[in-house]
Amino acid sequence: MYGKGLRVLTLATFTALIATFCLVVFYAPNDADQGFIQKIFYLHVPVAIITLVAYVVAGIFAVMHLRTGDGRWDVRSYVVIHIALIFNVIGLLSGAIWAKASWGHWWVWDEPTLVSFLIVFLLYATYQPLRFSIEDPERQARYASVFAILAGAFVPLNFMAVRMATSLVHPRTFATADGGLPGQMMFVFVVAIVAMGLLFWLLVKYEITQKNVTWQLRALRRRLLGDDAVAPLGRSAAPTIAPEARP
To answer: Model pTM?
Structure first.
C-alpha cells in the first residue's frame, strides 16, 4: 500500500541529493573571502529554512486536528516536529562549524540569527516531554496541538524580528543587492533547498508509514490473541491516539 510511493520518493530524493553534492563541489564557485568552507552554506541555510517552514506546517496540522478531531492530523503534526528537530540539530551543528571556520569561534552570541535558531530549538525540545507527561490520549493530543499552534506562530514572528535587527552577520540570501547571491550560487542553492525538502518529506513519510504498520500489527495481534498479546510490545514513543482515529 505504501511501498510504491516511497520507492519513487526515495529515488527522487537520492537523485536530488547526489545532484546537489555534485553541483556544490564542481559547479558552485568558491567564495572570494571564505573559500571552499563557504560551501557548507548549501547545507546549513536550506536545512534551516526547511526546519522553520516545517514548524509552521506542524502548527497548521495541529489547527486541523483541533478543528476536525481527526487523530491523523495529530500524528502528522507530531512526526513533522520530530523530523524538524533533527534538522534543527543539523542546522545548529553546521552553523557552528561554519562559524568556527569563518569567525574563529564556534558560537557568536551577539548574532541574532544564530541565537534565535537556538531559541526555536529549545522551545520545540520541550514538545515531547510535555506531550508524554499527559496520560489521557485525548488530552495529550489536544494540549500537544495547542503547543504546536502557539510555537508555530512564534516561528515567523521570531524570524521577522531577526530580519529587522540592526546587526546581522548572515548574508541576505534573496536580496537583490547588498548580499544577494550570484547566478551560479543561487541556482545551486535552489537545488539544495529542493533536495533538503525532498529528504524531509521522505523521512516524514517513512516515520508515518512505520507507525501505521506498527498500529496495524498491534490491532491484528489483539484480534488474534487478545489484549494481553499486545502488552509485551511496550509503550510506543508515538502519539497515543484512539484506534478509530489512527491513519
So the answer is: 0.83
